Amino acid sequence: MYLKKLHLRSFRNYVDRQVEFTAKKTILVGNNAQGKSNLLEAVELLATLKSHRTSRDRELVLDTATASQIEAIVERTHSTNELSIIFRKQGRRTVAVNRENLRRQLDFLGVLNAVQFSSLDLDLVRGAPETRRNWLDGLLIQLEPVYSNILQQYNQVLRQRNALLKKIRAVRQDDPNGSIDSFEPQLRLWDEQLAAAGSRVTRRRARVVARLDPIARRWHQKISGETELLEVKYLPNVEWTEDEPSKVQRAFLTRIEERRIAEQYQGKTVVGTHRDELEFAINETPARHYGSQGQQRTLVLALKLAELKLIEEVIGEPPLLLLDDVLAELDPNRQKQLLEVIGDRFQTIITTTHINSFNQNWIKDSQILKVQAGTIITAFL
Amino acid sequence: MHLIKRPDKEVQALAQALVAAKQKVGFCKICFHLSAEPVCSICNNQNRDRSTVCVVGDSRDVIALEKTREYRGLYHVLGGVISPMDGIGPEQLNIEALVRRVTKESVEEIILAISPSVEGETTTLYINGLLRPFTKVTRIAFGLPMGGDLEYADEVTLARALEGRRELD
């Protein structure tokens, strides 16, 4: 797929800017805080309707405006689509494909696919489990848009169940001998809902990890020089063996039963997919406890390349690749390997403050744009 | 602006109607639908099938179902759905009255027509558990909109529609 045109209106620090992408590789050069990452963020929003920088729409709107708009033209093998998102300081977003407003945001996802590499990616290895879950969920949404509904439903059940458990705990605290029998039937139903929604989440997560693992392993071997063996392991909070909805649900209910007292004591749900973990093991040692910064970078690069390949495999077209300020962090060897992978197939948008550190092969054939205080101009080196 | 341009009399009438609505409209003591009388016109209508009760979350749902003119039974309005986050448990809803209705009157079928949200689903399951020992409990089917195209339906809706499939008659 090819992002041909991008039009930003009152978006972040852009008043009204159009960019036409004329080459497979586009390098955005400029000092910090000029708007390079804002442009990548716009592409990320088109692909996922989410930004990794903020969850508040008002932050996406220029100070002096009340709403902002991203418009884009995306060419795919069999179609060309016009995308539009309007963000408001107050109120809901409007998303449209080919000038038709969509009632469900779900229908917007999947027209444009993108994978982003950023300096925050190292958190995938070093950060909390939540970072890894979010990454996995983001990938799943691109592969199977309906997953965003499934996840939303799970989170809603979780919030409701937590509210009930909190209430039960409050009743207990008021009167330690008091009866909580009256809550029992309702709690059972929330248990069942958690099991039903949780089994949908965990089965899809297991499925995507099973596909991701071999691809990541191959990349990792290639980049690290065949000396290290990577394994991507899904460690669900509720373990199950047979991929059968009713059996997975049963596993949830059994686990909930085992943790019943702990849950009522803590006043929250301690069993479920919100406590899943994704583990990266190198030579059978979890990468968190192991590895230099260089090794961790190799790992992240392998994971991201696997993400890229998996999306390509499932979608049938190469997704966009967004490199936010990361190329300079890679040593010449990894830069070269990344370049080989991208080749001519993936449209790539790169941001950097210093173009000098780039391998000449990157610069050759690239469209170079200079970003300065919300303006974008073609640069000639 | 629109109101200021209208004749005094019309505005007076509107104001009175609003006050009257606020003062007079309460809940039917049988089904809890909005009503100006102690018992609403649906519960009072002797032509309706008294052996079937359709359970809904809100009075607006009654109005929507009435518009179809397909349903000839009675209603029961819960006044919401179970939602611990909003402090709404079964006790806050008109569920006890529903159980009394089912055990005291000769209700042959309860149709649950509660929106298929997470909260609606829990409420549906809760009421099913309570009433199952006394009477037949059914729920409305969820699925594809009429005139909709199968290929454009999302997976959740399609799965639901498959679940609720039935034999052709």
Automatic annotation (TrEMBL), chain A:
Record's keyword annotation contains DNA-binding: yes
Protein name: DNA replication and repair protein RecF
Gene encoding the protein: recF
HAMAP family found in the cross-reference section: RecF
Gene3D superfamilies per UniProt: P-loop containing nucleotide triphosphate hydrolases (3.40.50.300), RecF/RecN/SMC, N-terminal domain (1.20.1050.90)
One BP term from GO: SOS response
Binding site for ATP: G30, N31, N32, A33, Q34, G35, K36, S37
Organism of origin: Waterburya agarophytonicola KI4
Molecular function terms from GO: ATP binding; single-stranded DNA binding
Compartment(s) of residence: Cytoplasm
GO annotations of cellular component type: cytoplasm
PANTHER family: DNA REPLICATION AND REPAIR PROTEIN RECF (PTHR32182)
Keyword Magnesium tagged: no
Family named by the database record: Belongs to the RecF family.
Residue ranges annotated for the RecF/RecN/SMC N-terminal domain, each copy included: 2-361
Coiled-coil segments: none
Keywords recorded for this protein, A-Z: ATP-binding, Cytoplasm, DNA damage, DNA repair, DNA replication, DNA-binding, Nucleotide-binding, SOS response
Biological function: The RecF protein is involved in DNA metabolism; it is required for DNA replication and normal SOS inducibility. RecF binds preferentially to single-stranded, linear DNA. It also seems to bind ATP.
Main location: cytoplasm
